[in-house]
Amino acid sequence: MKRLLAEAKEKGVKPSDIDGIAFSQGPGLGPCLRTVATAARMLSISLGVPLIGVNHCIAHIEIGIWRTPATDPVVLYVSGANSQVISYMGGRYRVFGETLDIGLEMPLINLLGELTCRTPEGQRLKHMQKNAKKYIHLPYVVKGMDLSFSGLSTAASEALKKAPIEDVCYSYQETAFAMVVEVAERALAHTGKKEVLLAGGVGANTRLREMLNDMCEARGAKFYVPEKRFMGDNGTMIAYTGLLMYKSGNTLSLEDSRVNPSYRTDDVKVTWIQEGKMKRVPEISPGTSLKLGEMLDNGAEAIVTWKKDLKGRKYLLRKESRKLTGIKKLMKGSGSKETGQKPA
Ligand code: FE2
Asked: How buried is 267 (Cβ within 10 angstroms: 0-12 exposed, 13-18 middle, 19+ buried)?
């Protein structure tokens, strides 16, 4: 507390300038949440200002909207523990699709841990991308709008017995990213929204950005990513969302400040958005021959068509955003000019 106030003084902030104390009320690990909540309560009592209990996932969304031109996006939120597709509708951030078991990133971190080079994660990813030679078929599990990564993770671990780590890592990443991009595309198709926002620590991955960008370009949607420092967990996202909540009168009593490790994104009543000011119908740009409604008919179906290469092997053609970057390497020598999925 002493250090905090000293730092605030250095920056010209007086205790009387503080209107409220925002803290992450959940979701997350109980012991970590409780530690911060205890400090927040102590500050709230000693400064005589209200507490603001922020939902961690919503904080990722709000800071992304603040730091980009996005106004009403479909949000792909991917981190170590979370993989959700979210969008605002009817007073709440609704979860359109999410993982049914584990988050997308953990298996990837574990696989990268198998790489022998002792370099930071970002460099390991680059090493993997550069040295992967082929795509290994792994389970692609999209169930309606939901996702499952546990089977994919197990299959990737099994594949390590026979294939180089770089190929396994690369194949896991391509498969998992294609899955989340598909669900984000389905959410765009269902809601008719025209913006996609990427949030969470995995959002720093350039391959995921590339795939989302391809999908958005194909659908005529805008794709937004905030600065890297606001993608992973950061204090600013809690403070900023706390400010939005405070201004809309959304504060907590001490009695209600208990943490909630399972706090759902759609549990939160969003008091700080005036719905009437959000665009809900996609605008058709001048010169476009499409009539309103036609774009909404464009669904997110993944499978397009089957093709055969010169050797008569069948290939499953996928949408641009779900094609594998390594496919050219894979097709080398087949003589076919077609691009497509791994040979069936
Ligand atoms: Fe987070």
From this structure: middle
Cα separation of 145 and 81, whole Å?
18
- pLDDT of 287 higher than 50: no
Using alpha carbons, list the distances in angstroms from residue 191 to 80, 267, 305: 27, 20, 26
Domains, the chain, ranges and CATH? 1-67+232-291 (3.30.420.40)
Task: Tell me, in angstroms, the distance from the centre of ligand 1 to residue 56's CA.
Answer: 6
Ligand 1: distance of its center to the CA of 28 in Å?
Answer: 9
| 164-222 pLDDT tens trace | 888 888 889 999 999 999 999 999 999 999 999 999 988 888 889 999 999 999 999 99
Phi, then psi, of 108 in degrees rounded to 5:
-65, -45
* pTM for the whole structure: 0.79
Cα 233 to ligand 1 centroid, rounded to whole Å: 5
Task: Please tell me the distance between residue 212's alpha carbon and the centre of ligand 1 in angstroms.
Answer: 20
Over residues 252-261, the pLDDT tens digits come to: 999 999 999 9
Quick one: tokens of 33? Answer: 């949440």
